[in-house]
Every structure is written in C-alpha cells, then in structure tokens.
Amino acid sequence: MKQWIVLALRNILRSPARTLVTVLTVAMGTAALLLALGYIIATFQAIKFQTIFSGTGHLQIADEREFSSTPSHPLEFGLTPALRQSVDGVIGAQSASIVPLIDFSGLISTGEQTLIFSGLAVDPAIETQLYRAAKPIVRGTGLAMNQDKPYSIVLGAELARRLKVDIGGSVTVISAMSRGGYNAMDFEVVGLTSTNVPAVDLRYVSVPIQAAQELIGSDRIDRLVVFLEDEKAGTSLQARLKDSQLPVVSRTWLELSPFYRQIYTMYRAQFLFMGSVVALVVFLAVLNVMAIIVTERTREIGTLRALGIPAPVVRLVIAFEGGVLSLAGVLVGGLVAGAFSLLTRHIVIMMPPPPGYSSGYPLTVLWSWWGFLAVGSFMVAVGVLAAAFASRRAARMNIIMALGRG
Question: CA-CA distances (angstroms) from residue 184 to 98, 108, 175, 187, 214?
Fold first, then answer.
C-alpha cells in the first residue's frame, strides 16, 4: 500500500503548475464556504443574544391566553401577586433572575404634541438585566438610576425628538384602565434610549412597574421573563412548572422569536445553494485535471495493467491523487479562513445597516472546528469522487492499445 501512496504523491508533483491551480481552486472554494459558515454562525449567535437580552429572556411565563389571544382591556390575562409568588417558588434557584413585565400602550403628550406609544413597565432594580444587549441609554440615565423617582420615564430618542422634549421635561401618559375607562399620569423624562430601529424608537417608552400598575389600576403583571444561569436548565424548569399544575404556561425564546427561525431557514438555504455551486466548481476542476492526467499517462497505465495490476487498484491510485489535491486545498483554504476570522477580531470592519436599522454593525466571522471538519471532509469527498469519475477511462483502457500510444 505504501508504494501506491508514494506513486500517487510523485504523480501529483509531476506537473507543479497544474497541481497549484487545482489546489488553489479547492482552497478558494473551501475558504468561501468556511467564511460564509463563520458569518452565519456569528449572525445566529448575535441574533440569539440580542433576542434574549433585549427583553425576551430565555423563558416567558404567563397565562396561556396571553400568548394566544388579544385581551379586551389591559392585564385581563395578567398574573396575580399570589400566582406570581407561586411561580417564583417553582422556579427557585435555577434562574438567574425573574423579571416581571407589563405591556401597555396609549397616548403620550407634552401639551403641544400628542403621539401614540407602545411601552414596557419594568422593575427599575433589575432593568439592566432585561436590556443587557439592547436599548442603550444615549442621554440621561435609565430607570435603575432613578429609583427615588417613582414617576420617571425613558423615551425612545425618535419619540422624544418628535415630542420636542428633553431630559427633565414632563410628559403626560394616557392609557386604558383594566376595569374600563382611561387614566392619565404625569412623568418626568430621565433618559433617552435607542434600539437602532427608528420605527421602534418612535413608539418606545419605559416606566417603573408600580407606576404602570397605578396608571392601569391593577396589581397584576402580564408575564414573567426568566433569565437562566444555565440555558440547559430550561427544559427541566418547564417540566417542573407543568407538574406544579399552576394555571400558567411557558414559552422559550425560540418559540417567541419567529424572526430567528426565518433567518435560520433563509441562511440555511443560501448556504446549501452556495455549497452546491462551490462543489460543482471543485468537481469540474479536479475532474479536468485528473482527466488530463489519465490521458497523459496512458502508456504508464497500460504498463501497470500489463504487469498484472488490477484496474480497481489503478483507479484507487488516481482517486487517491484527487483526494490529496483536495486535502491540500482544504488546508490552504482553512488557513485563509482562519486568518480572516482572526483579522475581524482585531480590526473593525463595519457593515452597512440592515433594512429598517439606522446604523451598521461590525463584521464578525467566527472560526468553527466542526465546520472546518465538515467542509473539509465534503471538499475531499468531492475531489475523490471527481478523480474516481475520471479514472473510469483507465479501467476500461485496452492494454495493447495503451502500450502502443507514444
């Protein structure tokens, strides 16, 4: 076996120029797939982190109707203080934190300007845990820094600009009450935030949860957002919650994020299409090289056959040559992709803003060893397949005619 491997390696080195072109073709295909895969992985991780730590959490717990129906009035399906306490007892130490939330909407006015808002009421003491990845304060301070002001409010930057209000200004918030009718309360603007999405910033407000309950006229909350220390504990937590027979259900961040699932489906389709195109290019490149090699080595193949070497062994040697060429290209392509991945960690390359966003984001390409092994194995398999396809001619070759070729 060793002599056949040596023979295959020598045959590859016979034509350095042709070998170099083939290796570079495989390398470019490998690097393209690895870079695309690294970008997709980085995108998925960023979207996941953004989703979880921009208010969704790892889990959300609420009345089942909260996830499936539209309430006729605020907090219609809300959790009572007693039920919330029971849920807290079931969750226990498995969670990093439990954040109560209230969704509410209505009108916000300065007296001269009145606009529609859609806001969240949060506990100021744990506000930063909810928005670890989004909604940074661009001016002023957040609710957590103003716990001594029970009627403080944080506005989206675009909403504040339209209302022509600044830090320290006063706004009136009008919202429907849980038992019917409307209520209005004055709030002091303590901070301006930006989600990088102008459409969201135009409607966003955040107030202390006690103030929202007073405005709505109820001591309930819409849902509990759970942040886990270990994400794997979510499954057991959901099972415990189900076994407790409490009148609540839980939903994971993935169930609450159709955008993530849509992005995953789209990128998967794009990567499969790109992989198919690259595989075709590599297949044709290796096939072309190996077909030329078989043609040029007709007398050599005929001699091997005349010496009693079986046709399958000859085909195996040619297929091995294709595999070695592909493997060399995979290693070179892996080095290029790894170097670029390392470069993106030290040099900021800004990408243009996605649709609907107001600013770009730094390009990140992650390195994945399992991705390298998968892509590398795929490319080598394509190279071996192309070489095996080209070697069919050698197996069918007439020994006498092959020896007679000059």
Answer: 29, 9, 7, 10, 10
The Cα-based distances of 52 to 39, 55, 103, 234, 253 in angstroms read 20, 6, 17, 13, 6
* DSSP code for 134: S
Block means of pLDDT (10 residues each) for the chain, length 406 residues?
A: 65 74 86 88 85 84 87 88 87 72 92 90 75 71 84 92 92 91 93 85 92 93 87 82 87 86 84 83 78 72 74 77 85 93 85 72 86 90 82 68 61
Q: How far apart are CA 57 and CA 228, in angstroms?
A: 8
Spacing of C-alpha 196 from chain mean position = 18
Please give the Cα distance from 226 to 49 (Å, whole number): 14
Q: For residue 203, give the nearest of 107, 139, 277, 292 by alpha carbon.
A: 107
Q: How many CB atoms lie within 10 A of CB 206?
A: 25
Q: Quick one: which H or E segment has residue 219?
A: none
What predicted TM-score, i.e. pTM, was given to this entire model? 0.79
CA distances from 53 to 131, 197, 237, 312, 402 (A): 5, 16, 19, 59, 70
